[in-house]
Amino acid sequence: MAPPAQIFHANNNGDPASVAAAKVTTKQTAAPAHSASLLDADEFCRHGHQVIDFIADYYASIGTYPVRPSVTPGFLLDKLPEHAPSRPEHDAFAAALRDVRDHILPGLTHWQSPRHFAHFPASSSTAGALGEALTAGINVVPFTWAASPAATELEMVVTDWLGKALHLPETLLFSGGGGGTLLGTSCEAILCALVAAREQKLAQIGSSKGIGDLVVYCSDQTHFALRKAARIAGIRRDNCREIPTCRDRMFALSPADLRAAMDADVNAGLVPFFVCATIGTTQTAAVDPVGELSAVAAARGAWVHVDAAYAGAALVCPEFRHVTDNAAEGVDKFSMNAHKWLLANTDCCALWARRPAALVAGLGMENEYILKDAAEEGHDVVDYKDWSVTLTRRFRALKLWLVLRCHGVEGLRDHVRGHVAMAAAFEAMVRADERFEVVVPRQFSLVCFRLRSPPEKFGGGEKAANELNRRLLEEVNATGSGP
């Protein structure tokens, strides 16, 4: 965390002695005439116009870039100097922008390209991008309420706004006794949920068991972020149960299989404590039966976290509420990435907790009186540093608030519905072409399809089909410009 720019406290309330001391201290440590730590308004306007023009030109021509660069490791190291300049060159900012254009852009994967179909492309919008600029320019560090009261309270407002727009249960919102926060990614959200669940479970079981007995459950379709989070949280690798799924169940996690796995662990003297259900898996956008899984987990004392990183955005549309069927009432944590489908630029993951006190118990600090403020006395304020892994954190709420203000809930619904309609049209085209097959019925805006394997030419079976489609994928990606 960077030290303060001044060595005296600015809040002297006009006290003459304090002001005099401040003047003396300032005189003794006089800054240079031009300090690089300060934002000069004229310079900012001049360079800011250059950046805005640069970004606008980039988006105007983004379709002309190859989606994936044709470079080899070390390509940029060979183009840039080994050492930073000791002094800036003439018109250094413009020269640096030229390097971005000539050396850096050609080496990037262009996630916003209309030809980018890999993963779930991070969304962007004018409001989101300019919200990022506002956040960077204001540059506050809202780790506690006292550090930036408006930043904390805006985060509380926008997480409740978004939760209501997604039709989340009242119990996950501040207005219903829960609460939300904004993190960087779903990986962070899962880790925070895991640590909170771990601490509560260890407190419950006391000294009779240890962390080595705790078991985590997910499906074989769950994002590997869960395994990474479990490893960081100290859960043994062989205590992370990946329960197999099948095509007949559209690759959703079976409550019966979860029950059997948990019971087997209990009989073996282990302690089930965490279940990660998914709404919209990465591979097929599968939807786990959250309500049934929650009932199984509750009967065995385990927490349920819902990872809705991609498809959680679809809940903004009433027609998709059936995927949770109000089952989110029984979950402990729910997270989704607003940067995946809701026009907020990366990064912006929303995490809601039914019991925020459990997050604070697992992630909070004690006796940090130096971070308190007299204005907090008598108020139950939120210090977001106790809701996440990091202390220093970004003012993400400003960006999300701007997106919600400028697009509105109906605008977000139109955005999601437009993508779903395009996917439905594409799915119909694939089904009409006998060379291809749709592997699982479309969920949301993801169409899973593959080239059929003619038995007389390539042989039958899954192995032949997989090899054929691997070759097709390699050929498509090798075209340079993309499909």
From TrEMBL:
Gene3D superfamilies: Aspartate Aminotransferase, domain 1 (3.90.1150.10), dopa decarboxylase, N-terminal domain (1.20.1340.10), Type I PLP-dependent aspartate aminotransferase-like (Major domain) (3.40.640.10). GO terms for molecular function: carboxy-lyase activity. Keywords: Decarboxylase, Lyase, Pyridoxal phosphate. The modification N6-(pyridoxal phosphate)lysine is found at K340. Signal peptide: none annotated. InterPro entries: Aromatic_deC (IPR010977), PyrdxlP-dep_de-COase (IPR002129), PyrdxlP-dep_Trfase (IPR015424), PyrdxlP-dep_Trfase_major (IPR015421), PyrdxlP-dep_Trfase_small (IPR015422). The keyword Lyase applies. It comes from the Eukaryota. Its cofactor is pyridoxal 5'-phosphate. Belongs to the group II decarboxylase family. This is Uncharacterized protein.
